């Protein structure tokens, strides 16, 4: 059992709390039975796990995960190490650790791998996130994007890191299924939208949009751009867009939280696709 917070494995996990550490290790932090269970369900094995059996035994989800941790360790893909509660807490990014924390290689969640797992259906919608700054918003939007069956998500260079631990927790397992392309230049985004299959329209969401969101055909190949929480869409986003959409609101409300607005638009696209 690991009892010292200065253990090298603990140091590795703590390093994943920073962008520099994630870039250096080519890995990201996963915490809690729910997210780790989602990884294992997707066939993604963390290469390192620290866990406190006593904490996991307190919940049904934790007990189920404990059995799976032993199985993962038996395969040789995962180094699973028992650790004292204070050690798990030291490695964790949360204020209330849930008994397990681990590291997943970024190579396990490349867009190419995730696309291969999702073959079998045409997904007409691409999502472009333009300098989103809040980790909770990004995680929520990613979760809605997977639920609405978005093809892939492109993040501009000004966006918060999608592998930030707070984003990973808020997304609740989405990273193991949804292709995410971070740090994209507008030139690369334009090339992606023009590639096969080419997008028929690129729509920017804003309060003064030309058309209400429900009046747009979202069953054709489309890209939806969601802008920064405070500033809205960037000038680059507006130049790339072929049109704009809005969410009509009553009672003098001018705008919605970015995650709520994005979710409304995404599920309208999903509704149209099901109707078609």
- Inertia-based shape: elongated
Task: Summarize the amount of helix as a percent range.
Answer: 40-55%
pLDDT < 50 runs, ≥5 residues: none
Tell me the Rg in angstroms: 20 Å
* E-strand count: 11
Helix-strand pattern: HHEHEHHEHEHEHEHEHEEEHEH
As for the number of domains, it is 2
State the secondary-structure class.
alpha/beta
Classified by CATH, the class of the largest domain is: Alpha Beta
| Spatial ordering of strands, largest sheet | 7-6-5-10-8-11-9
Your description of this structure?
The protein starts with 7 loop residues before the first helix and ends with a helix. It has 2 domains: 8-109, Ribosomal protein L30/S12 (60s Ribosomal Protein L30, Chain: A), CATH 3.30.1330; 114-275, SPOUT methyltransferase, trefoil knot domain (Alpha/beta knot, 3-Layer(aba) Sandwich). 41% of the residues are buried. With 276 residues, the protein is an alpha/beta fold. The strands form 2 sheets. The chain has a 7-stranded parallel β-sheet. Helix 8 runs parallel beside helix 12. The protein has helices at residues 8-15, 19-25, 32-41, 53-56, 60-75, 85-91, 111-117, 135-147, 165-171, 186-194, 235-240, 258-275; strands at residues 27-31, 48-51, 79-82, 100-105, 125-129, 152-156, 180-184, 201-205, 211-212, 222-226, 243-246. The chain is built from 12 helices and 11 strands.
């Amino acid at each position: 059992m690991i009892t010292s917070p200065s253990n090298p494995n603990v140091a590795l996990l703590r390093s994943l709390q920073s962008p520099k550490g994630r870039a250096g290790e080519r890995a990201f932090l996963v915490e809690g039975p729910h997210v780790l269970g989602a990884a294992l369900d997707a066939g993604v094995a963390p290469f390192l796990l620290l866990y406190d059996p006593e904490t996991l035994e307190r919940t049904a989800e934790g007990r189920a995960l404990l059995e799976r941790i032993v199985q993962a360790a038996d395969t040789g893909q995962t180094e699973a190490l028992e650790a004292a509660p204070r050690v798990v807490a030291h490695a964790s990014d949360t204020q209330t650790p849930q008994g397990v924390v681990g590291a997943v290689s970024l190579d396990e969640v490349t867009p190419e791998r995730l696309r291969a797992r999702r073959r079998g259906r045409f997904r007409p919608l691409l999502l472009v996130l333009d300098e989103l700054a809040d980790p909770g918003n990004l995680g929520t939007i990613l979760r809605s994007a997977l639920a609405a069956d978005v093809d892939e998500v492109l993040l501009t260079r000004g966006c918060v890191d999608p592998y930030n631990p707070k984003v990973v927790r808020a997304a609740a397992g989405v990273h193991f299924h949804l292709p995410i392309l971070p740090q994209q230049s507008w030139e690369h985004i334009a090339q992606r939208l023009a590639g096969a299959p080419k997008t028929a329209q690129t729509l920017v969401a804003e309060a003064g949009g030309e058309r209400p969101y429900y009046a747009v055909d979202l069953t054709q190949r489309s890209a939806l751009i969601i802008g920064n929480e405070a500033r809205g869409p960037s000038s680059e986003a507006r130049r790339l867009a072929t049109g704009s959409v809005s969410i009509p609101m009553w009672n003098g409300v001018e705008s919605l939280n970015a995650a709520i607005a994005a979710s409304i638009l995404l599920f309208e696209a999903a509704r149209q696709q099901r109707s078609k």
